Amino acid sequence: MSRPAHGRPGYHKISKDLFVLTYGALVAQLCKDYEKDEDVNKYLDEMGYGIGTRLVEDFLARSCVRRCHSYSEIANIIAQVAFKMYLGITPNVTCNNLSRNEFSLILDKNPLVEFVEELPAGRPSLCYCNLLCGIIRGALEMVHLAADVTFLQDRLKGDSVTEIGIKFLKKLDEKKYRQKK
C-alpha cells in the first residue's frame, strides 16, 4: 500500500517553501499593479481575511482546541497552536494593557520573509506580511470575535523584532452567524 502524498517526509517543508516563494511573487505583482503602499497593504489584508475565514474550520477540526474563556487563552492558542501548525513557528505572546484585551505576537523568525532581504525600493510603507493580519482577523471573526490586527514592528523595516498586535474589540452576536435551517 502506498503512502499518501501528505505522509512523505519533507512534504511540509516543500509546501512551505513553495508558499513563501509564491507569496513573494504575489507581493511583487501587487507592487507593480498598485502605486500606493496602502492599496497593496489593503489588498493583502483582504486576501488574508478571506483565507482566515476558510482556514478556521480546518484549524478547529485538526487542532481539537476547546472553547477559550479569555482573550489571553485565545492569543496563546493563536501563537502556540495555529502558528506552529501552519507556519512551523511559535511566537512569544505578551499582554499590552491592564484590560487584557491587547496582545502582541513576537516572531523570532518569519517564514514569509525567508527569501526577502529588504522591501522593494520606494515602498517604505509596504507591510509585506499584511496577509497574516488578515488571516488572524478573518479567523477570529468566524469564531465571533472582532479584532484589530496590525503589524507594530517589522524587521524588514529595520525594527529589532517582528511584532503583530491583536486588539480584541468585542464578542460578535453569534445569532448573526448561525445558518438558517
Automatic annotation (TrEMBL):
It is found in: Endoplasmic reticulum; Golgi apparatus, cis-Golgi network. It comes from the Eukaryota. Its main location: endoplasmic reticulum. Keywords: Endoplasmic reticulum, ER-Golgi transport, Golgi apparatus, Lipoprotein, Palmitate, Transport. One of its GO terms (cellular component) is endoplasmic reticulum. Homodimer. Component of the multisubunit TRAPP (transport protein particle) complex, which includes at least TRAPPC2, TRAPPC2L, TRAPPC3, TRAPPC3L, TRAPPC4, TRAPPC5, TRAPPC8, TRAPPC9, TRAPPC10, TRAPPC11 and TRAPPC12. May play a role in vesicular transport from endoplasmic reticulum to Golgi. This is Trafficking protein particle complex subunit. It comes from Loxodonta africana.
